[in-house]
Amino acid sequence: MNRDNLIDQVKDEYAKIASYESRQNFIQSTTDLTPEAYYEKLLSKAVDEINKGTFDNFNSGEEVVSAIANDKTWLSNWK
Fold this sequence. Notes:
Layout: H1 3-24, H2 35-52, H3 61-70
């Protein structure tokens, strides 16, 4: 799959997830990472990995997001 298309799909997937999480979490602690910030961080790492070719064998953004959700080792330097 074209990397730009894959990036667009991953962005859409994380936007949906972050939006859903925001609606579910009305109360946020000031020390906790908001859902938007967490998924923005994941998205940034995912885009870096897509650009490196890590996910070249994947067929959709949904597959990428699912793989990352199940195993953060797909992301270099994930903390």
